[in-house]
């Protein structure tokens, strides 16, 4: 390839990567940094009165259904069939368990146990995606790979958020709200300090490192609203939405990336159909007035689908495995490399 051709290739690829990284960064930090400014509109009552916030809330809920795309994608289905426990049996078991657990314990002291499991797994899932997003940013910006300390910083702020937000849960045997807040804040600040140090080290280390440093900073800021919210909803809705927007961006590009083999329209339609079907089940599960005495049992359907999303997503983005790495690189490669 001639020097002119190489220059042309880089010129066309770099803007594409820049747009990808910029969009991913905005998704990561937007609702988190916006919280101090518009935190009042995150209150549940006001939430229903603001069209933009309502739309973001839909994205936050419906992103669970995006995972269904894997089951409709011809290239990914062989992996599902080769790993039935992870992709078929485990989701089915967790769905059934959630229905039973929610139905039998709602309104009893035992509900505290299952609520805390759901809460901890939810925020852990958010944190793990931040690790993956930051690793993708490092790959796309051609900086050095994430260090163990980078991952530890992002993990600690997530654990801090889990502990602190647990204070908003249903009344249970461990109702020390002040202790949970202070312990969570201490863990969060430890992760935040480590993240600042790691980001500063990267910035001082080379010109290509500042993008990864920015994602590290965004990731350690991610759970900050936990310590300002006056309720569970206000504490997590900002970063729940940020998490959803990250996932929508990545999975939309994955779907579009399959267009070379199966057609863009077919891939995108598969994505939208799966989102629509799964979101409909989640929406119905939240309409308690429709179900009378069965409301708690039906609510378990939405919780179970969310748990199933955690299980599937944890494997589908495990890029240290050859199939997943080749699949993601095949769909997102043009955004990750020249």
Order of helices and strands: HHHHHHHHHHHHHHH
State Rg.
21 Å
Outline, from the CA principal axes?
Answer: globular
- Would you report the number of β strands? 0
Q: Would you mind describing this structure in some detail?
A:
The protein is mainly α and 338 residues long. The protein has one domain. It has helices at residues 3-38, 44-47, 51-66, 69-72, 77-82, 84-105, 111-140, 148-165, 177-205, 210-221, 232-257, 259-262, 264-285, 295-316, 322-336.
Characteristic key phrases:
mainly alpha, globular, 15 helices, 338 residues, 79% helix, disordered N terminus
Brief digest:
The chain has helices spanning 3-38, 44-47, 51-66, 69-72, 77-82, 84-105, 111-140, 148-165, 177-205, 210-221, 232-257, 259-262, 264-285, 295-316, 322-336. It is mostly helical.
């Amino acid at each position: 390839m001639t020097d002119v051709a190489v220059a042309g290739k880089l010129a066309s690829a770099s803007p594409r990567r820049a747009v990808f990284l910029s969009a991913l960064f905005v998704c990561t930090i937007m609702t988190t940094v916006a919280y101090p400014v518009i935190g009042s509109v995150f209150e549940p009552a006001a939430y229903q009165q603001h069209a933009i916030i309502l739309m973001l809330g839909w994205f936050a809920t419906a992103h669970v259904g995006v995972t269904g795309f894997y089951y409709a994608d011809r290239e990914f289905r062989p992996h599902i069939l080769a790993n039935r426990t992870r992709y078929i049996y485990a989701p089915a078991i967790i769905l059934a368990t959630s229905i039973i657990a929610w139905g039998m314990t709602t309104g009893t002291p035992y509900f505290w146990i299952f609520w805390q499991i759901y809460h901890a797994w939810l925020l852990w899932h958010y944190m793990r995606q931040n690790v993956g997003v930051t690793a993708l940013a490092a790959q796309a910006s051609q900086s050095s790979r994430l260090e163990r300390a980078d991952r530890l910083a992002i993990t600690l702020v997530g654990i801090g958020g889990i502990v602190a937000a647990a204070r908003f849960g249903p009344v249970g045997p461990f109702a020390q709200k002040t202790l949970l807040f202070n312990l969570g804040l201490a863990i969060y600040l430890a992760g935040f300090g480590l993240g600042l140090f790691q980001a500063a080290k990267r910035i001082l280390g080379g010109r290509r490192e500042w993008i990864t440093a920015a994602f590290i900073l965004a990731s350690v800021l991610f759970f900050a609203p936990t310590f300002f919210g006056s309720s569970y909803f206000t504490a997590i809705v900002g970063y729940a939405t940020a998490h959803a927007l990250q996932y929508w961006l990545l999975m939309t590009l994955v779907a579009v990336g399959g267009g070379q083999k199966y057609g863009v329209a077919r891939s995108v339609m598969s994505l939208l159909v799966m989102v629509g079907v799964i979101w409909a089940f989640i929406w119905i599960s939240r309409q308690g007035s429709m179900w009378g005495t069965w409301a708690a049992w039906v609510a378990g359907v939405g919780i179970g689908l969310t748990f199933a999303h955690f299980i599937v997503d944890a494997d589908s983005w495990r890029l240290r495995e050859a199939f997943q790495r080749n699949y993601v690189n095949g769909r997102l490669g043009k955004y990750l490399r020249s």
